[in-house]
């Protein structure tokens, strides 16, 4: 299966979400409810099930997690080193800079499952779940003001909690009872499609931020996966974790960057446009990286 065929269903879902938001389901309150459903119920179920049933020893993922953290750190350092190209005001720079290192878990899980099946989904689940706290720490720490209850939002993140629960359950040798596993499987199946529809509904088209948008997109979608490739080869990661590391580094920015920027008084509209830009461009760049991985 070629890379374009692999990526098509996921980005078709995103395009459908954008269309539904503008034509049929135009009420913002509906999409707020959808996002809460995905964030608090569906994706935690997907993460817990994929990790609880992971077909590998979790200590084998330590090198992958460390590599993902290093790539995120590199993006963080690079975007702030080039801060004058990202914005003129420090808080705007800090809020926009999130889009150079934060990652869209929904798209990551969908692409990993489509390309590498249940095992790829489990590897991506471990990586994304482990690095959500780091993404939040980097983002909150770089903003000029702290959000009210910021620490509470960090430790109570449902994706983090589901990851920890799945990791502990797997480490303890637990087996999910069949009826419970069937329920989680249904919720997990809904998570991918509905999550991608919500991504599409959140897209914000704009011609603004051309300079900062091009720089952030280049760091997130080109430089970061190239660094991941070099790091993964240097460390000698096995083929599947290596592929997951590169795909993780090539993911577009997360919608949570907009939420944090808005709550902390940053440039919320600018961040929303950067998220939209990286999401749209990633349809091309993810296709490229999947093709390179397939031919490697």
Write up this protein:
By secondary structure, the protein is mainly alpha-helical. It has a single domain, classed as Up-down Bundle (Na+/H+ antiporter like fold), CATH 1.20.1530. It is about 75% helix and about 0% strand. Helix 2 runs parallel beside helix 7 (about 160-170) and helix 9 packs parallel to helix 12. The chain is globular. The model is unreliable at about 145-150 (pLDDT under 50).
Number of helices: 12
| Total tally of structural domains | 1
Q: Tell me the overall shape.
A: globular
Q: Could you estimate the helical fraction of the residues in percent?
A: over 70%
What are the secondary-structure elements, in order, as H or E? HHHHHHHHHHHH
Strand segment tally: 0
Radius of gyration: 18 Å
Mean pLDDT: 80
> Which sheet architecture does the biggest sheet show?
none
Low-confidence stretches: 144-150
CATH architecture descriptor text: Up-down Bundle
CATH topology: Na+/H+ antiporter like fold
Between the first and last Cα atoms, what is the distance in angstroms? Answer: 15 Å
CATH class: Mainly Alpha
Structural class: mainly alpha
What structural keywords apply?
Na+/H+ antiporter like fold, 296 residues, mainly alpha, 12 helices
How would you sum up this structure in a few lines?
The chain is an all-alpha fold and 296 residues long. It has one domain: Na+/H+ antiporter like fold (Up-down Bundle), CATH 1.20.1530.20.
